Amino acid sequence: MILVVLPLSNSSSFSLLKCRQKESNRFNLITTSNPPFTKRDRLKPSKFNSVSCSLKLPSSLDSVKPYVQSEWKTIAQGWICSAVSVYSLSNIVPGLGKFTAVMNIETLKQQGLLIGLLFLVRLVSNYLQQSFLWEASLRSVYKMRVCVFERVLQRNLGFFEGGSGKSVGDIAYRITAEASDVADTIYALLNTVVPSSLQLLAMATQMLSISPVLSLVSAMVIPLMVFVNAYFGEELRETSNKANFSIAAISSYLNEVLPSILFVKANNTEHIECIRFNTLAHKDLNERLNKKKIKALIPHIVQLTFFGGLLLIFIGSLVTASDLSSVISFITSLVLLIDPIQDVGKAYNELKQGEPAIERLFQLSSFKSKVVEDIKEVDVEYVSGEVKFADVSFRYGDGDDMPLVLNKLDLHIKAGETIALVGPSGGGKTTLVKLLLRLYDPLCGRILIDNHDIQSISLRSLRTHVGLVTQDTTLFSGTIAENIGYMDMMNKIDMERVKKAAEIANAVEFIQTLSQGYATNVGPRGSLLSGGQKQRVAIARALYQNPSILVMDEATSALDTKSEMLVRQALQRLMKNRTVIVIAHRLETVLMAERVFCLNDGKLEEISRSSLMGGQHDSLASSGVVSSDVIVL
Ligand SMILES: Nc1ncnc2c1ncn2[C@@H]1O[C@H](COP(=O)(O)OP(=O)(O)OP(=O)(O)O)[C@@H](O)[C@H]1O
Q: N or C: which end of the chain has fewer CB within 10 A?
């Protein structure tokens, strides 16, 4: 059974969400709409949406531009500090030159004090420049992450079901590690655009004023360095891209295998998984090594080119110079040029290295939703629970070559009625439920709730009225109370309602035995609870939500008799006074329904309950319609 909240299961937990909320509070975030941003963080939505919502991918710099622009104040502060830093440096250089001409000790002292002071100003302003620019870069990336994650959650279910070829691990890697690379790239660019240019300009001016001829000769080194950078920059871009893919593959693999550790151990396949991991890790080792080698090589080649040129100029200036003080100032300026030139080179490399990460991050948010919310869609406050499928057909994928999973299907469920859906595996039962939740839209036909076409109801409203209890119980790391009151987690969980829901769901008995009762953490995916306990918490969660229509995928996992009895009792209570569609596997559950439908090959056929209890049961079981593991009443 596919879960509505599947995208959250790997990368999100209550504690994380709470952290985000705490973080929000710390930054005085506005929580009216997600993503939360501070007043100063508040994005100009049109700008951000124009980037993140367009289907066509903008260039990597265009993608990050609005986020960076939103930090213009911090960036301006950083750049002002860099101007102060360069100003002090450009006064240090001629000051150093004057030392040679200083004859008396008094002037020497004054000159030394002035240079010392300038050094101090440079140190402080340099530090402030870096911290402001880091703050701007990290805040930009924080906003990108939140926006991209929000967009990822808006993506169609098909994206997570593998239709896009992207695994959950890959997505998680892009939003975590690759987004951090993006911060490095932004910082490198911000730190270069103004600060390094200013320093370059200041030093070049000094040099030109001292010796225009030597300056022009020195400038001849620059094209060579640009060429070296451009060549290796492209190489770096390619190897970075490969390295990103290889590490994302490891992340995907781990995300798949670690949650299935029980299965791996039970099958004695640890050694196989080690070999699979080794293959991926070795590939990553090679790609990463290539990248690091190129990255390490570039500054050395740049330095070699620069110092080669510098040596020639130094020799030339010694031969031609008449004034030693000017030679020292000139050479100092030239030496100080290496920093900004290196920075430009590094920034270019960072950009080349970061471009794939930026592209991969924004690929996640660039899509055109298939399930589109109409502007005219309305919130429906109350529904009685009548459900109609009228002439509904559906197939996965866009091409006509895919088979129809549902074929001109009609179904009318009265408000408050319980129906059971049975049928062979792959018959389309889960698909029907996905359509009711509007996780996909039908190819043709309409689905109505209380005579409202679900496409005219807001998704939020629809999914409030349609509750889901899945076969593979989804719990998040967090407390029992948080799991039961999941829908109110960001507001205030109503503990009275939690307790009432737990009581009806037969969960109180085991919750009371837990060390911290409702405040007990259930572990990642509820791993600290037993199967039956998890199911009862999930039932309590549905009771807390109190939807008018309930979709239930009956668990087939074997529970012990007592647990099964408790779960079944809880389910019966949950089903009371609401419309229920139960995907049933056991005869007992099938018989809890008022009407039973068999879904096979996209066609729906009603079957009588008596036929299930009577002779037809065996033939239905052998065709996979209901489980043969049944207790015939
Ligand atoms: N995301 C998907 N993309 C492509 N095909 C899919 C997707 N999900 C399901 N299918 C296909 O659609 C058909 C119906 O699947 P569905 O999950 O609805 O069956 P089901 O009756 O619920 O089966 P089961 O009882 O085994 O859970 C199957 O052939 C399945 O392979």
A: C
